[in-house]
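We now fix the convention by which a protein and its fold are recorded. The integers have meaning only within a learned vocabulary of local backbone shapes. A complete example follows; check for yourself that the lines match position by position.
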Amino acid sequence: MDRRTRTLATAGACFAIAIMPLGSPPAAAVTDAATDAAAPAVSTLPPVSPTPQSLTPAGRDAVVTGRVIVVAGEGTDAGARARLVRELTAHGADRVDIVAPGEEPRAAAGLLTVRLGPATRADIAAALGDTQVPDRAEGYALRVTAGRPGAQIALAGKDAAGQFYAVQTLRQLFARQGDDGWKVAGVQISDFPSMPLRGTIEGFYGQPWTHAERLDQMDFYGDVKANTYIYAPKDDPYHRGKWREPYPADKLAELGELVRRATANHVRFTFAVSPGESICYSDPADRKALKAKLQALYDLGTRAFSIPLDDISYTRWNCESDRSVFGEPGRGAAARAQVDLLNDVQRTFIATHEGAQPLQMVPTEYGDLTDTAYKQTLRGTLDPAVEVMWTGTDVVPPKISNEEADKASALFGRKVFVWDNYPVNDFGNTSGRLLLAPYDKREAGLSAHLSGIVANPMNQPYASKVAVFGTADFTWNDRAYDARTSWPRAMAYLAGGDREATDALLVFGDLEHLAPTFGATPWQPQAPGLARRVAEFWTSWDDGNRTGAVRALRAYATAVERAPATIRGGAVEKGFTVDADPWLDATELWGRAMVTMLDALAARQGGDKETADRLLAESNDLQQRARAVRVDPPRNSWGKAQPRVGDGVLDSFLVQADVRLRLWDAAGGGENLALKGTASASSVEQNLDRLAARHVNDGLMGTRWASGYSDDAWVQVRLAAPAKVAAVTLAWEGACATEYTVQTSRDGVNWRDVSAQRPDGCGTDVVRLTADEAVQYLRMQGVERRTTWGYSIYEMGVYGAPAS
């Protein structure tokens, strides 16, 4: 595997390895043996992800000796053994001897001995002592002891996967011992997953992952103890549109390699084929073609299969024979047809193929809790063995509770399997966004109510690892999961344990924290860390501690500016820097703009207006350059877009600071006056309340106003009192303007054009005004739309000082 070893504390150095067969001559005398006298005292319990069910101290830490004995028998999992050797050589062992149980060489006295295999093996059971091996699938136990004649580690699995996971935990127990040595924390662990199905579904629209990216993902899932990957990319033509056609030979070869890599990492490769757009449910030829597609993957080693029936029409038939067999099209008839197909596949394909897992399916009604004829039919007639997927109370749910999971299970007549649409970014509200917030808002205890959770990642596979790391952590032990601790560990994983790179990723991740839904309100806020610091800045500034305010925020602004270079410095996984490249470019510019703006404020506070004006101009130029950055070429279906970086927080701070400088002697010059105003508009798209004018000044970047479909539409804000306005900001959604004007009015009747705008894309426009007279009305007057839709604006800000 072409991946470097990762720990959560620090990256390991690699040494040469000699894997010695049984009967090899003994090694030279060992001088670094771990004895009672030399062994270090037990350290603080190390961080382990996913969080084990039980982790307690077991004594002193064990020193990794130059030569290590690994005791492995016929029942030892090959993947676990290979990973164990790799980790030992990465953490101080320059020779690893693999021997059978009971055949340890005499020279083993004083050496670190690691026993790996099934929990039933006598030598492992003895080494475990009172450490219990869970009687649960994929469970394992681990014990580290340091004593005479040498240190010993026992790694016991309930099954082969358990052995593999024991090694994945061991790799996180290594820590530095002195300048050039390594030790293993003296702990005992008894652990098992809370949910049987854990992992991802590659189910997004847009450019699918490459073969190399998928292979890397299988290794990643092994690291985080995820056991499920569902292959379901919407834009793979042979998955959906050409589902009847066999895969070409080269693609089939790639899938075979992917199945083997998944199996090596104890990941269940699940092949999904989605025939719903064109299948004739009653046609024996279509059923034969479907089963032939599944058989081709079974022959490659696949043992898990899914038939997603999402995002299709179920109010029409694809053939007339379905009408005669299942009745007039509708919810109940569609469910009868789908159940007939699914039961056939479960009973005549899955049940007749050795080792095949229960069939999975995605219902057409996958994201609500409403009982319908469709769900009633599935509940009453679908084979009980079939796993049913559910996305939550919406396509992108803001939360999932135990109560909601129980309601869904009751609706479908079985525990549901959650397809969690986070961190997927293939829909309009995610345009220009990386979604790097932690996995969150899923209730502890869900393991008792679900059969599992798979996350739907982004088109950017490496950036998706942040959220998927948390998903794996949650599904392994949901009752102990804490997003606040899991998120930094995810960043540390990507950074190979490098502390500086981890901190840079956390700063960058905060700027990419917004998690939209399909509705108006995001379920995670944008840049909460920066937002808190900006609020503290203005409080200190207005309280008179301006020097202290600048000093504190400038330090963080500098961290924002420097984060991209640190992330690109080599410690962070290369794929992540490629995925995030345009966002990193924009972040550096936004960070420099923020540092420069703070320097301008400091200069103005010190009485140097000339320097302040020069720095303000430099900051504004940097902001324009940041807005001009584009995701190009795009992987996402939303196409070339401006990378969103701390939008609504960072850019708002810069506008406020700009206005304060321009209205230096005016009280309250940096206030967004629109928040206390009243919005109105010429029209609202389809008269939908969720798109009403009031959303344009509610202070929420997740809500928006949208107009009717005309070029001359407008939206305006009536301020609470007349004011001298220095700037207007317009945060556009994807339906923006090719051309518009900003107008002002004292009375709402007589209007004056104050600025004509022709933006080069959809982003946040900052329109600066002269602030030469008091006005009470500000309007965006459309001239030409960029799309066939109307105009759509998340927020309209008005910055200035009350005339009084």
The longest strand covers residues 714-732. DSSP finds 19 helices and 28 strands in the chain. Residues 158 and 608 are 72 Å apart (CA to CA).
